[in-house]
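dumping these here so i dont lose them again. two proteins, back to back, each one seq then structure tokens. dont judge the mess
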Amino acid sequence: MIQKIEPAAAIRLLDAKKAQAVDVREPDEYAVGHIPGAKLLPLGEVMSRAAEVLPDKDAPWLVYCRTGRRSADAVQKLDALGYTNIYDLGGILSWPYEIEGDFEGHF
């Protein structure tokens, strides 16, 4: 099931270790800055690598990208692959909490 989730609800799940963030941007974008602990699964690799990167199809996954377009596409693909607990977090540009990486003014 796909659900939208707001950053405030997402951070509560992440802090409680009840969900895992998934970044569907490209590796260079991830390196610039990402939600701490997020798994990297570029959109173009979702269909081929989801089982490897996200092995538990019933775990809560919080999917995000830069602005929300790629995350919306990714959650549809994950749903088609049988993932049952997917949240579309949207874009990291609207994430008001900690970001780790080497962002040097890239955002």
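---- next one ----
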Amino acid sequence: MSLSKVALVTGASRGIGLSISQMLVGLGYKVYGISRKPENCLYQNELFHLISCDLSDPKQIDQLLGRIPDKKEISLLVHNAGLAYFAPVEELSSEKIREMVNLHITAPMLLTSLLTRYLKQNQGRIIFMGSVSGKEISPWGNVYASLKAGIHHYARELFSELRKFSVKVHLIILDITKTDFYNHLNFEPDEDPKSYLLPDQIAEVIEELIISDKGWIVPEIQISPELFKLKRKKQI
């Protein structure tokens, strides 16, 4: 049996997922990170194992656990992978809609279903990375925001269902965070450092949830920067 605790983190090669993975490695976890393009990640550690998998393809998810030799020891599942396309509803292609649905709804549900038996055995933990978009009306965010609202409700359902088996479920609702999430959008965080969160700050909050295990649980938490400021990108 492995001496390390074992975690599975989606979207682990960059941004928030990479910061969470690095934090978990620091806590002694063996981390299996899921990434569509693991070759782009420069971080290396003997406890960090990136696996190439396109989570928008359900067939690849079905084969994923067969590539994790100690899958039965997984005690932490972090649903972090995501992307967003913002546009008027008639301008969103069916391909982009399917990609978002598969990544934000189908993939977390399939992975959770595949791993819950082990998480129950290990009295483990599931963390969902939500978004304030799932709580508010988001201009041109019709699909993305609706999917986030859906995964918020799924996390709440799981909290109620799994707590009797000592599986802890957390929903982390994120506000504006400075990552490459905004690379292909027409807006981005303001330059003011008080107007955005950093991936390492998100990882710090999750670390507190993991190490402060005192017999009670925080099922849901929203993290927001001090100021609300966005800016539109200059059109070239």
